[in-house]
Fold this sequence. Notes:
This protein is an all-alpha fold. It has a single domain (about 10-175), classed as Arp2/3 complex 21 kDa subunit ARPC3, CATH 1.10.1760. Helix content is about 75%, strand content about 5%. It is built from six helices and two strands. The chain has helices at about 10-30, 45-75, 85-100, 110-135, 140-180, 180-195; strands spanning about 35, 40-45. Helix 3 (about 85-100) packs antiparallel against helix 4 (about 110-135). It is globular, with a radius of gyration of 17 Å.
Amino acid sequence: MEPFKTKNSNRSMFIAMVAIFTSLSTIATVVFVVPFPSTQGYFNLGDTFVMLSGLLLGPIGGFIAGGTGSALGDALLGFPAFMPITFFAKGFEGFFVGLFSSRTRLRERASWWDVIGVLFGSAAMLTGYFLGEVFVLGVPFGVALIELVTINSVQVIMGSIFTIAIGPLLREYLRNYTYSEEEHQDWMIVTEKSPETAGV
Protein backbone atom coordinates (compact mmCIF):
# COMPACT_ATOMS: atom_id res chain seq x y z
CA MET A 1 0.00 0.00 0.00
CA GLU A 2 1.43 3.38 -1.00
CA PRO A 3 2.06 5.86 1.82
CA PHE A 4 0.44 8.60 -0.26
CA LYS A 5 -1.93 8.41 -3.20
CA THR A 6 -3.55 11.45 -4.76
CA LYS A 7 -5.96 11.70 -7.64
CA ASN A 8 -3.77 13.93 -9.83
CA SER A 9 -0.19 14.33 -8.66
CA ASN A 10 1.05 11.52 -6.48
CA ARG A 11 4.68 12.11 -7.46
CA SER A 12 4.45 15.84 -6.84
CA MET A 13 2.95 15.29 -3.41
CA PHE A 14 5.59 12.73 -2.54
CA ILE A 15 8.46 15.00 -3.60
CA ALA A 16 6.97 17.92 -1.66
CA MET A 17 6.58 15.81 1.48
CA VAL A 18 10.14 14.49 1.20
CA ALA A 19 11.41 18.07 0.95
CA ILE A 20 9.34 19.12 3.97
CA PHE A 21 10.50 16.25 6.15
CA THR A 22 14.11 16.69 5.05
CA SER A 23 13.89 20.27 6.31
CA LEU A 24 12.15 19.20 9.53
CA SER A 25 14.84 16.58 10.18
CA THR A 26 17.52 19.23 9.74
CA ILE A 27 15.76 21.74 12.00
CA ALA A 28 15.13 19.15 14.73
CA THR A 29 18.80 18.15 14.59
CA VAL A 30 20.17 21.66 15.11
CA VAL A 31 17.54 23.26 17.35
CA PHE A 32 18.65 21.52 20.57
CA VAL A 33 22.18 20.13 20.90
CA VAL A 34 24.07 18.59 23.82
CA PRO A 35 27.73 17.90 22.85
CA PHE A 36 29.45 14.62 23.70
CA PRO A 37 33.14 15.70 23.61
CA SER A 38 34.63 12.20 23.83
CA THR A 39 33.45 11.33 20.31
CA GLN A 40 32.71 14.87 19.04
CA GLY A 41 29.13 13.72 18.63
CA TYR A 42 26.05 15.33 20.16
CA PHE A 43 22.55 14.66 21.46
CA ASN A 44 19.73 16.01 19.28
CA LEU A 45 16.03 15.59 18.59
CA GLY A 46 16.31 14.66 14.93
CA ASP A 47 15.36 10.99 15.32
CA THR A 48 11.73 11.96 15.85
CA PHE A 49 11.40 13.34 12.33
CA VAL A 50 13.60 10.65 10.82
CA MET A 51 11.18 8.02 12.08
CA LEU A 52 8.13 10.06 11.15
CA SER A 53 9.56 10.40 7.65
CA GLY A 54 9.65 6.63 7.31
CA LEU A 55 6.21 6.09 8.78
CA LEU A 56 4.58 8.69 6.54
CA LEU A 57 6.68 8.49 3.37
CA GLY A 58 7.65 4.83 3.18
CA PRO A 59 11.16 3.34 2.99
CA ILE A 60 12.53 5.45 0.11
CA GLY A 61 11.15 8.73 1.42
CA GLY A 62 12.29 7.84 4.93
CA PHE A 63 15.81 7.12 3.73
CA ILE A 64 16.11 10.32 1.70
CA ALA A 65 14.52 12.67 4.22
CA GLY A 66 16.07 11.08 7.29
CA GLY A 67 19.56 10.66 5.90
CA THR A 68 19.83 13.92 3.99
CA GLY A 69 18.16 16.09 6.61
CA SER A 70 20.28 14.73 9.45
CA ALA A 71 23.52 14.97 7.46
CA LEU A 72 22.72 18.60 6.64
CA GLY A 73 22.33 19.14 10.38
CA ASP A 74 25.89 17.85 10.90
CA ALA A 75 27.13 20.28 8.25
CA LEU A 76 25.37 23.27 9.80
CA LEU A 77 26.66 22.43 13.27
CA GLY A 78 30.26 21.99 12.11
CA PHE A 79 30.56 18.19 12.27
CA PRO A 80 31.48 17.34 8.65
CA ALA A 81 33.31 14.13 9.63
CA PHE A 82 30.00 12.67 10.83
CA MET A 83 28.06 13.47 7.66
CA PRO A 84 28.63 10.14 5.80
CA ILE A 85 27.95 8.12 8.95
CA THR A 86 24.84 10.15 9.71
CA PHE A 87 23.54 9.88 6.16
CA PHE A 88 23.55 6.09 6.23
CA ALA A 89 22.70 5.55 9.92
CA LYS A 90 19.74 7.94 9.89
CA GLY A 91 18.85 7.01 6.32
CA PHE A 92 18.46 3.34 7.19
CA GLU A 93 16.63 4.32 10.36
CA GLY A 94 13.96 6.00 8.24
CA PHE A 95 14.12 3.19 5.68
CA PHE A 96 13.33 0.40 8.15
CA VAL A 97 10.53 2.34 9.83
CA GLY A 98 8.98 2.89 6.41
CA LEU A 99 9.61 -0.65 5.22
CA PHE A 100 7.60 -2.23 8.03
CA SER A 101 5.00 0.45 8.76
CA SER A 102 3.92 0.52 5.12
CA ARG A 103 2.66 -3.05 5.54
CA THR A 104 -0.07 -2.06 7.98
CA ARG A 105 -3.65 -1.35 7.00
CA LEU A 106 -4.32 0.49 10.25
CA ARG A 107 -4.18 4.23 9.74
CA GLU A 108 -5.32 6.04 12.85
CA ARG A 109 -3.55 3.92 15.47
CA ALA A 110 -0.24 2.14 15.75
CA SER A 111 0.04 -1.49 14.68
CA TRP A 112 2.63 -4.14 15.39
CA TRP A 113 4.16 -3.36 11.99
CA ASP A 114 4.76 0.19 13.18
CA VAL A 115 6.37 -1.04 16.39
CA ILE A 116 8.59 -3.49 14.50
CA GLY A 117 9.63 -0.74 12.11
CA VAL A 118 10.59 1.58 14.96
CA LEU A 119 12.61 -1.20 16.62
CA PHE A 120 14.50 -2.04 13.42
CA GLY A 121 15.02 1.65 12.68
CA SER A 122 16.43 2.22 16.17
CA ALA A 123 18.77 -0.75 15.77
CA ALA A 124 19.98 0.56 12.41
CA MET A 125 20.76 3.99 13.86
CA LEU A 126 22.56 2.64 16.94
CA THR A 127 24.56 0.08 14.95
CA GLY A 128 25.43 2.57 12.21
CA TYR A 129 26.85 5.16 14.57
CA PHE A 130 28.70 2.64 16.70
CA LEU A 131 30.40 0.95 13.74
CA GLY A 132 31.04 4.26 11.99
CA GLU A 133 32.68 5.84 15.02
CA VAL A 134 34.86 2.80 15.75
CA PHE A 135 35.91 1.79 12.23
CA VAL A 136 35.71 5.08 10.31
CA LEU A 137 36.50 7.79 12.85
CA GLY A 138 38.77 5.66 15.04
CA VAL A 139 36.87 6.30 18.27
CA PRO A 140 37.88 3.87 21.05
CA PHE A 141 35.46 0.96 21.44
CA GLY A 142 34.60 1.78 25.04
CA VAL A 143 33.92 5.45 24.32
CA ALA A 144 31.67 4.61 21.36
CA LEU A 145 29.83 2.09 23.52
CA ILE A 146 29.21 4.70 26.22
CA GLU A 147 27.71 7.05 23.64
CA LEU A 148 25.55 4.22 22.30
CA VAL A 149 24.00 3.31 25.66
CA THR A 150 23.54 6.91 26.79
CA ILE A 151 23.04 9.65 24.22
CA ASN A 152 22.10 7.60 21.15
CA SER A 153 19.80 5.26 23.05
CA VAL A 154 17.94 8.18 24.62
CA GLN A 155 17.54 9.76 21.18
CA VAL A 156 15.93 6.69 19.61
CA ILE A 157 13.74 5.99 22.65
CA MET A 158 12.36 9.52 22.55
CA GLY A 159 11.92 9.35 18.79
CA SER A 160 10.19 5.97 19.01
CA ILE A 161 7.72 7.08 21.67
CA PHE A 162 6.80 10.24 19.78
CA THR A 163 6.48 8.41 16.46
CA ILE A 164 4.22 5.68 17.84
CA ALA A 165 2.09 8.23 19.71
CA ILE A 166 1.74 10.91 17.02
CA GLY A 167 2.64 9.20 13.74
CA PRO A 168 -0.61 7.26 13.19
CA LEU A 169 -2.67 10.41 13.76
CA LEU A 170 -0.65 12.25 11.12
CA ARG A 171 -0.95 9.23 8.83
CA GLU A 172 -4.74 9.28 9.16
CA TYR A 173 -4.92 13.01 8.47
CA LEU A 174 -2.61 12.88 5.47
CA ARG A 175 -4.40 9.90 3.92
CA ASN A 176 -7.75 11.67 4.25
CA TYR A 177 -6.23 14.82 2.81
CA THR A 178 -4.42 13.24 -0.14
CA TYR A 179 -6.98 10.66 -1.28
CA SER A 180 -9.81 11.58 -3.57
CA GLU A 181 -13.29 10.82 -2.19
CA GLU A 182 -13.75 7.82 -4.51
CA GLU A 183 -10.32 6.37 -3.66
CA HIS A 184 -10.93 6.87 0.04
CA GLN A 185 -14.24 4.97 -0.10
CA ASP A 186 -12.66 2.13 -2.09
CA TRP A 187 -9.79 1.93 0.39
CA MET A 188 -12.18 1.80 3.37
CA ILE A 189 -14.15 -1.06 1.77
CA VAL A 190 -10.94 -3.05 1.26
CA THR A 191 -9.71 -2.51 4.83
CA GLU A 192 -13.09 -3.34 6.37
CA LYS A 193 -13.01 -6.72 4.62
CA SER A 194 -9.35 -7.39 5.44
CA PRO A 195 -8.51 -9.53 8.50
CA GLU A 196 -5.49 -7.27 9.04
CA THR A 197 -7.74 -4.60 10.49
CA ALA A 198 -8.24 -6.77 13.52
CA GLY A 199 -4.52 -6.91 14.28
CA VAL A 200 -1.38 -6.12 12.39
